[in-house]
Design goal:
Elements lengths: L5 H7 L6 H5 L11 H15 L3 H14 L11 H17 L2 H20 L3 H10 L4 E10 L2 E8 H11 L10 E3 L2 E4 L1 H16 L7 H9 L2 H17 L22 H11 L6 H12 L5 H8 L7 H11 L14 H6 L13 H5 L1 E2 L7 E2 L4 H16 L6
Antiparallel strand pairs: 1-2, 2-4, 3-4, 5-6
Bound molecules: iron/sulfur cluster.
Length: 393
């Protein structure tokens, strides 16, 4: 039995039908009013009714860019709707995809936690309203010793599951019967988290410049815009371990092989990684002097980041706990076979990978490198030669 009234749901999940109208209720008589006056009045009201709004908004951006997950408490009243749509408005104005992804990842994770707390009947209602209807089967289906109580029609499951890029959600790894994909509650909440993540990211229809100019004329909002702009500027110098140049002894960004740079860029932008990409990073970091902490930090920006799971997997790949087996770096042959090699990629490719290197005993013929650690070695050689003006061969 659901305890929600009509407003209850939309207060908790503001992107549902009616949420935008509650945030921005333009009425006929006001439509003649200049837009800047209208929004000035609207936000002045909101900031005076909810004095905590200012700090909450700032926290969303600060925490998102700091990749922190806790510290923000979502309310389940109108303030939550105002927070959601003001964040979206600011994202539209900033027109910055990295900011979009960081903020969307942070908020969608908070909504994931919220969805997990729903009872099954409410989760069914919410999923329908979110366009990914699930059904609850009290008896459920036993799959691998775990009872799966929820199911989604296969044609509705596939497009969302594909966005997760997690092999765990591939049909081959799921229980499918008569066109129904059976799931546990956590899986269902994770799928809905992805739907929510997409609701947070704005459409970006080329109105950012105009919108930013307008918002800068609105008092409390313009102050927030300035603060966010400063944070973004500051973060340029401390974005992530791989953009710094002094993090590891002998290990600077330029020494990372193309296949690793490509994955790090995805992670920095908050884009989901495939299972193989996660393993490649974990194994490469484990074998190149990176700490567990530095490796966890790579995964911190991912939409499905779970510190406990990430830490466990990373430690496992280093032989800490479990059977004590430390995994080696993938070979280039293996990486090519699973399509992770970026030797000739326009942005990340490098002649060392694409053409090979001159090695003793091979005359004038270039020899392909065998694994990404070779790249680090040969790139270092190349840099040292350049610094000392030594010809290539
Ligand atoms: S050649 Fe090896 S190191 Fe270079 S991008 Fe391909 S897989 Fe990575």
């Amino acid at each position: 039995m659901s305890y929600y009234n009509a407003y209850g749901l939309v207060y908790k999940y503001p992107w549902l039908e009616g949420g935008r109208e509650m945030f921005d209720p333009i009425v006929e008589s006001e439509s003649a009013e200049p837009l800047v006056d209208y929004y000035n009045r609207l936000f002045s009201d909101y900031f005076s009714i909810y004095p905590e709004l200012y700090q909450k908004l700032l926290d969303v951006f600060i925490f998102a860019l700091d990749k922190k997950e806790s510290g923000i408490v979502l309310t389940d009243d109108k303030l939550n709707i105002i927070l959601f749509y003001t964040v979206k408005t600011l994202l539209t104005a900033f027109d910055n995809r990295i900011l979009d992804n960081h903020v969307a990842n942070l908020l969608s994770k908070l909504y994931h936690k919220r969805l997990l707390q729903e009872n099954p009947q409410d989760l069914v209602i919410i999923s329908k309203k979110m366009g990914l209807p699930c059904h609850f089967d009290r008896k459920g289906k036993d799959f691998g010793g775990v009872i799966h109580h929820f199911w989604v029609e296969i044609h509705q499951y596939v497009p969302i599951a594909a966005l997760l890029r997690d092999s765990n959600y591939q049909l081959i790894n799921r229980m499918v019967q008569n066109g129904k994909v059976f799931l546990i509650k956590d899986h269902m909440a994770r799928l809905l988290q992805e739907v929510a993540r997409r609701e947070i990211i704005p459409d970006h229809q080329g109105i950012s410049g105009e919108l930013l100019t307008l918002l800068k004329k609105i008092n409390p909002i313009s102050a927030i815009i300035n603060e966010i702009a400063i944070i973004i500027e500051e973060k340029k110098y401390s974005q992530s371990p791989y953009e710094k140049t002094n993090v590891y002894e002998n290990m600077v960004y330029v020494l990372y092989p193309p296949c690793i740079k490509f994955i790090l860029n995805k992670a920095t932008n908050g884009v989901n990684l495939t299972h193989s990409e996660r393993l490649h990073i974990a194994f490469f970091y484990a074998n190149t002097n990176h700490t567990v902490e530095e490796t966890v930090d790579v995964f911190r920006t991912l939409p499905d980041f779970d510190e406990k799971i990430a830490r466990y997997n990373i430690e496992f790949s280093r032989g800490i706990g479990g059977k004590g087996k430390k995994y080696s770096v993938y070979s280039c042959a293996k990486l090519k076979s699973i399509k992770l090699c970026k030797a000739t990629d326009k942005e990340y490719g490098d002649p060392i990978c694409a053409e090979g290197v001159y090695r003793k005993g091979h005359g004038d013929t270039k020899v392909p490198i065998k694994n990404p650690k070779d790249f680090v070695f040969w790139k270092n050689v190349e840099i040292q030669r350049k610094l000392q003006n030594i010809p290539k061969k």
